[in-house]
Design goal:
Layout: H1 3-11, E1 23-25, E2 33-34, E3 40-50, H2 61-79, E4 82-92, H3 97-113, E5 118-125, E6 130-140, E7 155-158, H4 164-174, H5 181-187, H6 193-199, E8 205-208, H7 213-224, E9 227-231, H8 239-244, H9 247-256, E10 263-267, E11 274-280, E12 284-288
Parallel strand pairs: 4-5, 9-12
Antiparallel strand pairs: 1-2, 3-6, 4-6, 7-10, 7-11, 8-10, 9-11
Helix pairs in contact: 2-3, 2-6, 4-5, 4-9
The structure holds adenosine-5'-diphosphate (ADP) and magnesium ion (MG).
Length: 300
């Protein structure tokens, strides 16, 4: 199959690469062309996933696609941005039709669910599977949610269960085709796009939790020049996680595991998330109610 045919057949499908109010030209020319209303700003974010580094390369192509698009869209959610479209750079060791069909079906599912069509990209052959996705979103001028802005006295919130991503990883590495509930979360960490939009005007700072709650909250602390007191008893843990792991191990995944793609944010008051602590004066994140003498946790 020629590169041109491959793009036509798998990427330039109506269900995947439709035009919308913002995209006036999509796949098929040298560039995509976007219309951005003058009262809006464009938000961009890019993620690269390398086979056997960020996911087992023999995982289902459908799952690889849903994960790649979900984790990238999660950055738009964190800014309160509305998706416009995405571009895809893919490096493939070989052009296998069955693989490409399932991969593009995975993209279609998430593109449809979050109304974020494919609008261009690049296709190359190379020794390992590499997928780079860049998402483009819009936000009202000056309204994007940032990591700076948290104030002493604000409360700290998360949008949902923590630790599922970290808890899923050992299972996914053992069996890349496993489809239990934790593995499902790993392959399809649905981005909190709707919540992100609602947090505009409510959250003082926001990010998506990709590297572990404590580390990510530290980013808000640093950018906002504040500290946080977190109560580990308030951190929501899923039943799936607690079925697989003891509470302490589950909490460790919740605090340091990463791959959750929930939003963590600060606000004076919010009824949209789960309160886990508060913003205080000082530096860094303190977690109460968790044994801090365990290896790896001294500095929390
Ligand atoms: P050029 O040589 O001008 O860079 P290409 O031949 O690489 O153009 O791509 C032709 C068209 O197909 C372009 O519109 C490009 O955006 C699109 N395209 C190529 N690869 C992909 C891909 N993986 N996903 C989506 N669109 C793609
Ligand atoms: Mg060109």
């Amino acid at each position: 199959m020629k590169e041109f045919e491959l793009i036509e057949r798998y990427f330039k499908q109506k269900k995947l690469a439709w035009l919308n109010d913002y995209i006036s030209l999509g796949i098929g020319d040298d560039c995509a062309v976007l219309d951005i209303p003058s009262d809006m700003q464009l938000c961009l974010s890019m993620d690269t996933l390398v086979g056997d580094v960020h996911f087992p390369k023999h995982a289902k192509p459908f799952d690889i696609a849903t994960r790649a698009l979900c984790v990238t869209l999660s950055d738009l959610a964190a800014m309160g941005s509305t998706p416009v479209g995405f571009t895809l750079a893919i490096t493939l060791p070989q052009a296998e039709e069955a693989w490409l069909k399932q991969f593009s079906d995975g993209l279609i599912e998430i593109a449809q669910q979050f109304q974020c069509p494919l609008m261009g990209g690049d296709t190359t052959k190379g020794p390992v599977l590499v997928i780079s996705i860049q998402v483009h979103g819009v936000v009202k001028k000056g309204m994007a949610l940032m990591r700076s802005g948290a104030c002493v006295g604000d409360k700290v919130y998360v949008s949902g269960n923590m630790g599922d991503g970290g808890g899923a990883l050992p299972l996914v590495l053992k069996d890349s085709k496993s489809s239990n509930d934790l593995a499902k979360h790993f392959w399809k960490p649905l981005p909190q796009i709707e919540l992100g939009k609602k947090l505009i005007g409510n959250a003082s700072a926001c990010l998506d939790v990709s590297d572990g709650l404590v580390q990510d909250l530290n980013h808000i602390c640093r950018n906002s020049q504040v500290a946080m007191d977190i109560d580990s008893n308030l951190i929501p843990l899923s039943n799936f996680l607690l079925e697989k792991y003891e509470r302490e191990a589950a909490l460790k995944y919740a605090l340091t595991g990463g791959d959750d793609y929930q939003l963590a944010y600060t606000a004076k008051h919010s009824d949209k998330g789960i309160c886990i602590g508060e913003v205080v004066k000082g530096e860094g994140v303190k977690v109460a109610g968790f044994e801090t003498n365990k290896k790896g946790f001294q500095h929390f």
